[in-house]
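Section 3.1: Structural characterization of target chains.
Under the original work plan, the team committed to producing a structural model for every single-chain target entering the pipeline before any wet-lab resources were allocated. The record below documents one such target. The sequence was received from the expression subgroup and is listed exactly as submitted; it comprises 127 residues.
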Amino acid sequence: KALLEELLALPNPPTALFTVNDIVAFHLLAAIRARGLRVPEDLAVVGFDGIEQGEQGVPFLTTVGQPFERIGSQAADLLLERMERGPGAAFRHVLLEAPVIVRASTRALALEDGGPAAPRMAGRNVG
């Protein structure tokens, strides 16, 4: 809550916040609402995880979905590969898709007056 107040006190406060995970996003949503602000009209919020809690009731939180099952499966495959090749085997970097699931905590940026209204994101880690 204190960090939210600090961000909103900036000369050009952010219009959107991206959190480290959905749990932090849910706490941030509560703090924003407790301050009397509206989401997404006053401040948009995006989480990261795509956890089940985001699906309860009417889905609200925009989030980046993590493919947890694929992460686990890929990790097991990499471990088995590593065990077969031994400790000297080269490391592999694996990139999995993480789709953005757009919901009501954000809104599409409208093209107004000939140009997009870009959100200002705070350059700090939250959470």
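The chain has three helices and six strands.
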